[in-house]
Specification:
The chain is of the alpha/beta class. The protein has two domains: about 180 residues, Glycogen Phosphorylase B (Rossmann fold, 3-Layer(aba) Sandwich); about 180 residues, Rossmann fold, CATH 3.40.50.2000. It is built from 16 helices and twelve strands. The chain has a six-stranded parallel sheet, with helices on both faces. A six-stranded parallel sheet has the order 9-8-7-10-11-12, with helices on both faces. Helix 9 runs parallel beside helix 10 and helix 9 packs across helix 14.
Length: about 375
């Protein structure tokens, strides 16, 4: 089975999947990246002005090419004679022209989308124009590859004709996270002490960019309120970003309640999940939210804001997590108190791990196989 994926840039979760598929006897995969500038400037993350430390990608191998010209990419892809091409989104504009060229050439194409209705403004004249343009664009494709249920809802709403659905989530290496976290948990007390945390502390973890979109301030303020009821609450806030001065000001109200290790390497994340009791993602706008799956693969319950798209597929409300209205400090504080005073519940961990597995690399590989079989 010959697959081609077209996307703008490498990501910390897709590259391990592509390397795994490269080792598979089932798929032959070629990836084309369309943002050459991203590679040339050293992969700076514009939201935090830091080069991501994706050291877990070192040594991973798969077939990849870089180019901006839609016509050049089209010629290369047609020469491969693929069974299916997945175009990841409509940015940059190269993707739109390339999709049209591939469709006219008789190549079967699908679109991967993470857009959600919740995160899309369809009001007014611009909203109407967006609806019309998107319906025409989606009509080019033979299949849809949404990252989750909300993304599928967007495709169904915006398209005039439904297409076969084969999910392509922003999955992580669930097995690696679970194994690394289990290894760290064997030394949980010692590892906590290395950060100044006690074994009896109720540790709330946030892993985020310190910017307005991911909203660390709401989490800090909610933890401050919850600590009045749960005195052994400690916030472990991993990350960095342009709000660092604001973060420091908010943290100064209770300096003994926080640990801020800064920006950490991707391969170190299981360490932080393993020593924590609860994960919170308070983002103001997050169509998906990969960190939810990372935390769940490590067995944590998760609380998210109402603007985190992945919550729909990963959370079983009241069992392995919950959702609070975005920006609502009081409601988040109530949920923190609820989950931290329950004590350790093995069923929470079991449900979280099961939900993480439901959207794993294995899910993607099965979906791709279904995609090919549907064409036979």
């Amino acid at each position: 089975m010959k697959f081609v994926v077209v996307q703008n840039r490498p990501t910390q979760f897709d590259v391990p999947l592509y390397a795994l598929l490269n080792q598979s006897a089932v798929f032959t995969l070629t990836v084309f990246y369309t943002e050459v500038e991203f590679v040339e400037v050293g992969s700076i993350d514009s939201e935090v002005a830091i080069t991501p430390q994706w050291n877990h990608l070192l040594g991973l191998k798969y077939q990849a090419f870089f180019g901006k010209s839609a016509f050049s990419l089209w010629r290369q892809i047609v020469a491969l004679r693929p069974d299916h091409v997945i175009v990841c989104g409509w940015y940059p504009r190269t993707h739109a022209l390339l999709s049209l060229l591939l469709r006219l050439s008789g190549i079967r194409i699908g679109v991967r989308s993470d857009n959600t209705l919740q995160h899309t403004d369809l009001s007014g004249v611009l909203g109407m124009a967006k609806r019309v343009g998107m319906s025409l664009w989606l009509g080019l494709f033979h299949a849809w590859h949404p990252v989750g249920s909300l993304a599928l809802g967007y495709l169904e709403k915006m398209s005039l004709v439904n297409r076969p659905v084969f999910y392509f989530p922003y999955a992580i290496n669930v097995d690696w996270f679970a194994e690394e976290a289990a290894r760290c948990q064997l030394q949980r007390l010692k590892l906590r002490e290395s950060l100044g945390l006690a074994g009896a502390d109720c540790v709330v973890l946030g892993v985020m960019k310190w910017n307005d979109r991911e909203d660390p301030l709401t989490l800090i303020d909610a933890c401050l309120k919850a600590a009045a009821v749960v005195p052994n609450l400690k916030l472990l806030l991993v990350g960095d970003g342009p709000l660092r001065d604001e973060v420091a000001r908010h943290l100064s109200h209770a300096p003994t309640k926080w640990v801020t290790p800064g920006y950490v390497k991707y391969s170190d994340l299981p360490f932080y999940y393993a020593i924590s009791d609860l994960f919170v993602h308070p983002a103001q706008s997050e169509p998906y939210g990969v960190s939810i799956q990372e935390a769940m693969a490590c067995g944590l319950p998760v609380i998210t804001s109402s603007m985190v798209g992945a919550a729909t597929d990963f959370l079983e409300a009241g069992i392995n997590g919950d959702v609070f209205p975005v920006g609502d400090v009081d409601r988040l504080a109530e949920l923190l108190i609820d989950y931290l005073t329950r004590g350790h519940d093995v069923s929470m961990s079991e449900v979280s791990r099961r939900k993480a597995e439901e959207w794993s690399y294995r899910r993607t590989m099965n979906e791709w196989q279904r995609c090919i079989e549907a064409q036979l």
